[in-house]
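Whiteboard transcription, Tuesday session. T.W. wrote the structure tokens on the left side:
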């Protein structure tokens, strides 16, 4: 497990949210794999990333079995965490109509690392 900075801890451990449009992967569309910042397991493929305009990286699918969905303690949303280390990723929204899968994983950039396809 990686040592996290204070801002990384605030989001990944304390389930915070980075400011919209601030994350380094919000407007980033290179080909590759997104990894969990904390433990390094692959979470998302760039092929499943789409432009939602919501201000955070958006994906309509995860790498199989890599992301766990749990009811958020706010009682409304569904939280997504890394299935391996439990690090907070963001929230999942269904039925917004952005893509044909109709699912949006709304993920904090700071929870992710990126490995490009080369
Ligand atoms: Zn992890």
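and on the right, the sequence the group agreed on:
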């Amino acid at each position: 497990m990686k040592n996290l900075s204070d801002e990384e801890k605030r989001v990944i451990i304390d389930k915070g949210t980075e400011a919209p449009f601030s994350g380094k992967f919000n407007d980033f569309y290179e080909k590759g794999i997104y990894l969990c910042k904390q433990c390094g397991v692959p979470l998302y493929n760039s092929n499943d990333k789409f432009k939602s305009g919501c201000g955070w990286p958006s994906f309509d699918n995860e790498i199989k079995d890599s992301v766990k969905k749990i009811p958020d303690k706010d009682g409304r949303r569904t939280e997504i965490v890394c299935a391996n280390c439990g690090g907070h990723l963001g929230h999942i929204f269904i039925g917004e109509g952005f893509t044909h899968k109709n699912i949006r994983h709304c993920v904090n950039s700071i929870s992710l690392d990126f490995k490009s396809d080369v």
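Someone added at the bottom: The longest strand covers residues 88-94.
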